[in-house]
Design brief:
By secondary structure, the chain is of the alpha/beta class. The protein has 10 helices and 10 strands. The strands form 2 sheets. A 5-stranded mixed β-sheet has the order 1-5-4-2-3, with helices on one face. About 16% of the residues have low confidence.
């Protein structure tokens, strides 16, 4: 039964995106039934309930002397040494929300370049991005819509009054005068992980205020930990446009189901369907464990 534990099977449980790593090396270790350490920093942990007895996985802090491979589950992009004696891989749950503020007409290229620069500077995996959040007046901004379509990202918008109610580290009176809220990028990024319906558990308030197995713990994290990247301002040199980027992380992947999609984005609609199916499976696993 041990050899049935494969990377593909684990990936189907977690729904994570593959990052850089020695995938053949770790697969070979698992095929031999040798110990593989799993270090999970974010994402739902209910997938562990589906593991068979006698599996070869171990967790951070176990006896490392017998570990022959390592799996990282994180939004971080780690530069793993290819020649390392210990084969390692990394999976990226989609837990990052990119808060965007921009001037009208800012191109997809400018917004995309700004996001990539932020991800590179802070060692964030592009494949860990769940979506973009912004003010509702930017819901039809072509640069943002094209970017979401290109990467199959969710798009969430908030009214100025809602954004103004979100606590942020860098409020701006200038932004208030222009759009009616003290923050767009930071408030939208935080709003995407804090506001609304949580499909993982019924009691969102209790789950978000604890570090329980089913709760994501968002509610007990201070703002500076929920907001991974404070607002960064980028100005295009050759083309018109200015974009502000902030990044927030939710410990549970695909937290939001009440996201909006560009109407022409067929792939986002498909992704929404698969997300609902995965949420249903997680809830069934939770109910089975409680009984």
């Amino acid at each position: 039964m041990i050899n049935q534990l494969t990377l593909e099977w684990l990936e189907s449980l977690g729904g994570w995106s593959r990052g850089f790593g020695d995938w053949p090396g770790v697969a070979a270790v698992m095929a031999r039934g040798e110990r593989v350490e799993v270090i999970q920093e974010v994402g739902c942990r209910l997938w562990k309930n589906s593991l068979l007895q006698g599996h070869s996985l171990c967790w951070d802090g176990d006896n490392l002397s017998v570990v022959k491979g390592r799996i990282w589950i994180s939004f971080r992009h780690r530069r793993l040494l290819p020649a390392s004696a210990l084969p390692q891989v990394q999976w990226h749950p989609k837990v990052l929300w990119i808060g965007i503020g921009c001037t009208g007409g800012t191109s997809r290229k400018v917004i995309e370049s700004a996001i990539k620069q932020v991800c590179s500077s802070y060692h964030l995996a592009l494949s860990a991005i769940a979506g973009i959040a912004t003010i509702d007046t930017k819901a039809n901004e072509s640069g943002i819509i094209e970017l979401c379509q290109g990467y199959n990202w969710h798009l969430k918008t908030f009214s100025a009054s809602v954004l103004n109610s979100v606590e942020v580290p860098h409020p701006s009176n200038i932004v208030v005068a222009k759009v009616g809220t003290k923050s767009v990028a930071e408030a939208a990024a935080l709003g995407a992980i804090e506001l609304g319906y949580c499909p993982i558990v019924k009691n969102r308030q209790d789950a978000c205020s604890t570090n329980s197995e089913y709760g994501c713990g968002v509610g007990i994290l201070p703002t500076h930990e929920r907001l991974l990247v404070p607002k960064q301002i980028f100005r295009a040199e050759e083309k018109a446009g200015c974009v502000t980027v902030a990044v927030a992380a939710c410990p549970i992947a695909h937290l939001r189901l009440d996201v909006t999609y560009p109407k022409s984005d067929r792939h986002s609609q498909i992704d929404q369907s698969s997300q609902k199916q995965r949420t249903k499976q997680l809830n069934q696993t939770k109910q089975a464990k409680n009984h």
